[in-house]
Amino acid sequence: MITDAALDVIEHGGYDAFTVAKLARALGVAPSALYNHVSSKQDVLLWVQEDLMTKVDVSGFGVEPWAVATRRWALSYRDVFARHAPLVPVIAVMPVAGAPRTLAVYEAVAAGFADAGWPIETIVPVVVALESFIFGSALDANAPADIFDTADLAGGSPVFTAAIDAFAGSGGDYTPDAGFDAGLDAMIAGLEARLDRLRKG
Amino acid sequence: MITDAALDVIEHGGYDAFTVAKLARALGVAPSALYNHVSSKQDVLLWVQEDLMTKVDVSGFGVEPWAVATRRWALSYRDVFARHAPLVPVIAVMPVAGAPRTLAVYEAVAAGFADAGWPIETIVPVVVALESFIFGSALDANAPADIFDTADLAGGSPVFTAAIDAFAGSGGDYTPDAGFDAGLDAMIAGLEARLDRLRKG
DNA sequence: TCGAGAAAATGAACGACATTCATATGTGTC
DNA sequence: GACACATATGAATGTCGTTCATTTTCTCGA
Lengths: 201, 201
Description:
Tetracycline Repressor, domain 2; homodimer; 2 domains; DNA-binding; Arc Repressor Mutant, subunit A
């Protein structure tokens, strides 16, 4: 209920608009009344984050090959939090205790990894690595299209400027998706090579 | 000058303590006087970010093999911003125009990549991919040691809980470094495989 | 049906914060 | 000596999250 109203406010005006006063108004209530149900604004943000976790797609694990399931998970994970970038720094350091839906996602992922042959003690660091990449990419997805305009400093950075031009020329404007795709391909390829070695060793 | 004072305040009390009033006091000046030199607090944060960029190690590019130089760059990049996590969401979307030191880092990196044989149009997405991973890892580095305590929900997540235990058992407490190392190894391995293919094709 | 007690709502107030503004003070130049 | 300019200042503003004493509403057992 409160979580739904919070999501409404956020979707309507972004995180800048997500203020206690606005949330209260969306609920038809005075701001102070909120504190009978919530101990802080931060609390509400955690509820929102938990809610978003249900939109992360773990359906591939256990049914598709590891690389396919992992790619699907990573794509949906990034898409969800690219639209909620201000939550990323919160999630990245949030304990899973008291976050059952987040934990459920981790369980599905861990089970999928174990099924695929990852030794149990390797799962946590590998998942953390993928998550770090996903979080960083979710932030990057909000970069403006002109983030790499070198402008008047172009003369001092010939190679980089050429790289920007070549990239833009080959595919139009800058879109962060190219970076995400390149990174996801590389990381999954690197991890799969390691998994192959582990299976044989 | 202002930048130095800002870094002092931040290093002393963290980003919560970095307030206009504190910054002014550190400079021996009234808060309002600051606005004769600065157009907003955000401005100062950008200066700080620029300053931090000089601590990123690009010395390997052009002299060491690509993988070695890239690893050194990534390690120092993450270390710098792990201690300045609140800046990460700012950097991730900050245009390089007007940030000469940031641009200088990009130039060194791009030149190193080009030297190593990366086709010019592939450089931007690959650098973005690595950066995304680095930013995410910098955030993750600030996670509390008990972030993966499943606590009373352990029964519902047997595989993940086992993975946590196995990981903790094999190396003591949770440290984000394991995730960073795993991801960096995988990504560099994946990228190097692609580079080999590009060189031959 | 009544009344006690819990739960929920309210407006006023607080303290922290970034920022603005009218005003003052100093500094160097013609 | 006067003028322009940069810089400093305290008071004031508006926004925000949060607290609190008080009142209203709801629930439920006698």
